[in-house]
Amino acid sequence: MNTNRLVGAAASAITLTLALSACGNAGGAAAPEETGPGEVRVWLVGTDTPPEARDYLKKTFEEENPGSTLTIEEQAWDGLVDKYTTALSGSDAPDVVEIGNTQAAAFTSAGYFREITADEFETLGGSDLLPGFVEAGDWEGKHYALPYYSGSRVVFYSKQVLGDTEVPTTLDEYVETAVDLKTDDLSGVYWPGQDWYNALPFIWENGGYVAEQAEDGTWDAGFSSEGGLAGLEQIQTIMTKGNNAPSDAQETDLQVPFCEGKVAFLSAPSWIQWSINAPEKPEDPDGVPGCASTYGKDLEGLALPGKDGGAAQVFAGGSNIAIAQKSARPDLAMSAYEILLSDEYQSILAGIGLFPAKTSLFEQVDQSTSIGKAAAEAAANAKLTPASPKWADVESKTLLQTAFSRIAAGEDVKTIAEKLDADIEEILNS
Fold it and tell me: What's the pTM?
C-alpha cells in the first residue's frame, strides 16, 4: 500500500488560484442531465482502496443500474490538484472523486462539487459520519464532500531491535528514549526532515496550535506561541540527537530503513504494517521489499504517548469523497456515492485497517493486535489542519517542509517559527 498516503501529496501552486476563484464558482454550472443507462467514472487516488472494495463497487453499481457501467480510474497523489482543477472544470469531468481531507476546502469553496442536501446527508449517514471529515468537506454551512475513510499514525517497533528498552509512556519519555537509543547505525526515532505531519502532535500536546481563526475572521498562526516553541524544541531534539534520517528527506518508503533494522521507533500510517510484512522478495519486480519473516514477525505498535500519558493528539489522515458539479449523470453518480458510503462497502475498508466513514463501524477494524489497538486510540484523539480553503496554499508552497528541514538541520527554532507563522498568516489572511 502507499505508505505516504496518510496525508496525501502536497498540493501544487495552482491551489492559490483555486482559493481565489471561490467567489466565481470555478466549478461552473452543472452539466445537462441525461436519463437512462450511462457510464459513471470514479476517480480513486493511490492504492489504499483495496481490490475487493473496487470490485464490490463496480459489481453492485452495475447490478443496481442495469445497462449502466462504472469505471474506476486510479489517480496519483503527486500533481493531483493540478489534474483535478483541469478535469473538474472541463467538459469531460469525472463523476465521483476522492480528495485528501486537507485539500477538500479548496475545491468545495471553489464550487467544484455538487451539494449534498440535508436529506441526502441523513440518508448517507448523518451524525454517524466522522465529524471532523464532515467539517473538512463543508462550505458555508452546506455539505459537499463527505468522509471516505480516515487513518491514524502508529508508532511501530520490533522487539528484536528494541531489546530490553522500556516502551515510553509519555511524550517526554519518547524524546528521551529516542536520544538514548541513537547510534551511528540506529535511529531512536526515524524522522525525515520534511515530515511535518509527525510534528503536529508535539505542537498540540505542548499547548500550541497551528492556526486559529478570530471572531473577525482573521487567522493567527501559533508555531511561535509558548506551546508551539516547546513542541518545536522537542522535535529538534529528536531530529538532531535521536535520528539518522536526512534533514531534507521526504516521508517515503519508510519501511526500508525499518526492515534494515536501523530504526527503533517509526511513527507512520497504520497501514505501513502491510509494507513491512510484505515478502522480502516481492513478486512485482518494481515492488519494495518488506521483512515479513524478520522484523515483521514481531512487529508491535503503540499510540504516540501524550504529554501526560495516554494517546497524543495526532494528525488525522484520510480522504473525502464528492460528486463533481459537472458530472453528466448526477443520478448515477449518487447511486455510486451511496454504495461508497454503504455499511457493506465501508466494512471492506475496515477489514484492511482503514477507519471507515461511519463511527459505528469502527469496531470492525481489528483491534486485537497492539497495532490495531494503537490505531484506534490515535484515531479517537486525532485532529485536522485548519479549516481554511487557503490551507492548501500553505502546503503548496512547502512552507512546513522547508521549516522542519531547517529545524532538522539544527537552525534556531524561534527564528524559524516566527517566519513560518508570518508566512502562514499572509496566505490565510490574503
Answer: 0.79
